[in-house]
Structure formats: C-alpha cells, structure tokens
Amino acid sequence: MADQVKATNITWHHGDIIREDREKSNGHRSLVLWFTGLSASGKSTLAQAVQTILFERGSKTYVLDGDNVRHGLNKDLGFSPADREENIRRIGEVSKLFSDAGIIVLTAFISPYRADRDKARAINGDSFVEVYVQCDLGVCEERDPKGLYKKARAGQIPEFTGISAPYEAPENAELVIDTSAETLEESAAKVVAYLEKRGLFSV
Is 111 annotated as catalytic? Predict the structure, then answer.
C-alpha cells in the first residue's frame, strides 16, 4: 500500500517563505517528537504534558494522537501490519508538513515496527526525535484505561500490540522515558531538558 504511487504529472511548488523564516518568527526551531510505546505506556499523556510546558513558554506546538487521527485522516485503516505501515507513513508525512510550518509536533503512536519508524525518521531527517516511552507490559495491563488489554486477552481484539501482535522496541532512540519508574512531571521535565540541550529555543 505505502509503495504505490498513483499521482503523476505533479511538481513540487516552492513557497517564498521557508521553514527557517517561520522558525525565526516563532522564536524556536521546529521538531518532530515521536513518542512510541505500548498501549497504556503513557505516550499521549506525556506528549500532552510536554506540549503544555512548551506552550506556556510561547512555543507553537501540536499533538498528533493515534486515536484522534484514526477518527479522521486514517479512519480507513485497520490494524493489520499493512494498515499500520500506512498509518505511520501518513503521520510521518503530516509531521513533516508541521515541521516545515515551524511547529513543534508531538506524535503519540504505538508505531510498533522499527522499519516504519525508520521510514518516518527518513522523511523528517534531522527534525526527528524518537522518544521511547518504556513501560513493562504488566504495568500497562494493570493500567488498561480503555479496557483494551482485557479484551485482547479474551480474544476480542485481534492483532493487539504486546499480546497477539509484536512490538519492536527502539534500539537507538534519542530519549528513553520509563513511565513505570518516573512521575509524569519527571518524565516531561526530562524531555524538555533534552530539547533545551539540543538548542531548540536558540534560533
């Protein structure tokens, strides 16, 4: 699905205002913070917490949440390996658009396959920061805020990551956040500290 190219006779149109112009106007660099991890690991919660800190500092930010995106842009996709691949491909491309617009985009997707995350990284280049939201499966199951693990264990949800479908943990993530050992405040502070060290707020 992802490798099919149907559009022909198209040419990229370059605008007069470029990414660097928008970054200068915003007062910070743009970036793609890619939060990956098991369901209930805390990806969305952490992404929202980091966004709040950045927003309060005057940054232009937006969170792309896995469930939210599947309500609209990706509502035609299921959870088969092929559909998961296409889901992440689209988000990788959308993230690039946000980054080109000078925005700090935070994506919260399980994105279970390394190859798909690597493709998202390739699309976004140096703007891409992989944040592995690490959490033991047992802790995720204990949390289970949506009751999905219970349904998966009962065989009601096929191809559920961590139960009946694999999760390939990052091997070289820029950041590893252990949400089973840290508070939300500690985890969010660690992400922001990384961004400061990287010079996100120096344009």
Answer: yes
